[in-house]
Design brief:
Blueprint lengths: L2 E5 L15 E7 L8 H9 L3 H9 L8 E8 L2 E8 L8 H14 L5 E6 L7 H11 L19 E5 L3 H26 L7 H8 L8 E5 L1 H7 L2 H7 L7 E8 L6 E11 L19 H15 L5 E11 L10 E4 L5 E4 L6 H16 L3 E6 L4 H6 L4 E5 L2 H14 L3 E3 L4 H4 L9 E2 L7 H10 L7 E5 L5 E2 L9 E2 L4 H9 L8
Parallel strand pairs: 1-6, 2-4, 2-5, 5-6, 9-10, 9-13, 12-16, 13-17, 14-15
Antiparallel strand pairs: 3-4, 7-8, 8-10, 11-12, 14-17, 18-19
Helix pairs in contact: 3-4, 4-5, 5-9, 8-10, 9-15, 10-14, 12-15
Length: 497
């Protein structure tokens, strides 16, 4: 992960002369900046007026997403980069995080650089570092040693007046960033490596952070009656796992987070088309987010009780695979007619949700799953689908999503959708028709939570990016770690140590 250092403002910004060696300097500004005043005046003098000329020629005004880059403007600076954060009166953490990510991208061909702040952006200095760290994520584990390494930003130094305040803020954000990185790593791993047993082994490393980890194998799940989950797993040579993670930051009833962990989804006998099937390694994105969340709350020593449960299976085609038309008995005792073996995620979640509810009696449950293509048709790649039986929980998730930049949109539920799940030979069927199918998938899950406050996040459109963004390169996003950590923070009972 990118090394972040925090120190007092840099001498060159105070007219105290050039640094001892060449450096790359980024200055985050608002639209209220004045090139003839403050640190800008010192930089303009150091560059012989090049800064003033560049600002005028480029039309740089400090607006969001604007930038101005000067290469070798003077002997002391290898590059000088201005990044806009917008108007001071509209400044927020999201704007500065995006600017930090944009700055890191502009510095991709250097190994170390400095960031300075003008105006109110200094109040959010730690968020600039947060954005830079998330932007600089790379997964290069499988590149051969002979591959020529590219220059890569390794250290970023923040120059701020309130050093201790920024350091305190950064420690909390760094913990969440590490959770996001853990989730991205898991989603990016190839499916021949990250099988259900291997996924479970990696989760066990959370014990080093003070998280209790319990792993249940196929025999234990069969004894518990996880018929829906095991039906999905029966076609694979890789055994299923249920992993329970528990972070005890208080003695209150827990907050429960449940993740779908299909490490590869062929669709089973209802096999998927070949085109794009490689992306089905990401069908464990919900489980990866839950693991990343537990890492984040443990690292920042959250003052609440959090549990995470992930059902880990591989959905494969074989002579022993589940057939369309099979009827399975779930952990809850309800029976399910499996009409499509590619609607498997809801079968996994059904057992895990009911088990979490019965065993832990949580204050609320939130599940995450790359569940349906239909939610992508509805919301595209900008928002996750939010379904809930509790208005207060849904409203909180929506508001927090807006605050942290992981946006959700609430979708409808109700009896009109629930009746579509009726089966002629079982308590319910696992698919309905195409109309409203993201909704009926959520309605299926609702049958296993009873009266427990619950929210379902369908992250099929946001767990993976096909293009780069300021806070995320192309690939796995780790969507949900930041959102759910904010939800945990909203339920903490006291100050952290």
């Amino acid at each position: 992960m990118l090394d972040i250092q925090i120190q007092a403002p840099f001498p060159i910004l105070q007219g105290a002369g050039a640094p001892e060696s060449e450096q790359s300097l980024v200055l985050l500004t608002s639209t209220n900046f004045d090139v003839a005043d403050g640190p800008f005046a010192h930089l303009d003098a150091a560059t012989g007026g090049a800064l003033r000329r560049a600002v005028a020629i480029s039309g740089y005004k400090g607006e969001r997403e604007q930038s101005c880059v000067l290469l070798a403007p003077c002997a002391a600076l290898a590059r000088l980069v201005l990044i806009g954060c917008g108007a001071d009166e509209e400044l927020d953490a999201n704007a500065v995080e995006a600017a930090g990510g944009q700055a890191a991208q502009a510095l991709k061909n250097t190994t170390h650089a400095d960031i300075a702040f003008a105006g109110r952006s200094a109040d959010y200095a730690a968020h600039a570092a947060y954005g830079a760290v998330l932007n600089q994520y790379r997964f290069d584990l499988y590149h051969s040693p002979e591959a020529e390494p590219k220059p890569r930003l390794q250290r970023l130094t923040l120059g701020v007046k309130e050093v201790e305040t920024a350091q305190t803020q950064w420690r909390a954000l760094e913990a969440v960033a590490q959770g996001v990185i853990r989730a991205r790593d898991l989603v990016t791993e190839p499916p021949n490596v990250l099988t259900p047993p291997e996924f479970a082994r990696r989760i066990e490393t959370l014990r080093d952070l003070g998280v209790d980890v319990e792993v249940m194998d196929t025999a234990a799940l069969r004894e518990l009656g996880f018929g829906a989950l095991l039906g999905v797993a029966q076609g694979s040579e890789q055994e299923a796992r249920l992993v329970v993670m528990r972070y005890r930051g208080s003695e209150e009833a827990p907050l429960a987070f449940i993740g779908k962990g299909v490490t590869f989804d062929s669709g089973g006998i209802s096999i998927k088309p070949a085109a794009g099937m490689d992306e089905m390694k990401t069908d464990m994105g919900g489980a990866a987010t839950v693991v990343g969340l537990l890492e984040a709350v443990a690292r920042r020593k959250a003052r609440t009780h959090v549990i995470g449960l992930v059902g880990l299976v591989e959905n494969m085609v074989s002579g022993n695979a589940q057939r369309p038309g099979d009827v399975v008995k779930s952990y809850s005792g309800q029976t399910i007619e499996v009409l499509n073996t590619d609607a498997e995620g809801r079968l996994v979640l059904a057992d895990v949700l009911a088990y979490a509810r019965d065993r832990f009696q949580p204050r609320f449950m939130v599940d995450l799953a790359t569940l349906t293509g239909a939610i992508v048709v509805s919301l595209g790649h900008a928002r996750a689908g939010l379904f809930s039986n509790d208005d207060a929980l849904a409203e909180k998730l929506f508001a927090l999503g807006e605050n942290v930049g992981e946006n959700v949109w609430r979708m409808p539920m109700g009896k009109a959708y629930d009746k579509l799940l009726r089966s002629d030979i079982a308590d319910m069927k696992n698919i309905t028709g195409r109309p409203g199918s993201a909704i009926t998938a959520a309605q299926f899950l609702a049958r296993f939570v009873k009266e427990t406050p619950w929210a379902h996040l369908d992250i099929a459109g946001v767990a993976w990016r096909s293009d780069a963004a300021p806070l995320c390169p192309k690939g796995a996003t780790g969507f949900g770690v930041r959102l759910l950590d904010a939800l945990v923070q909203a339920h903490e009972t006291g100050p952290r140590d």
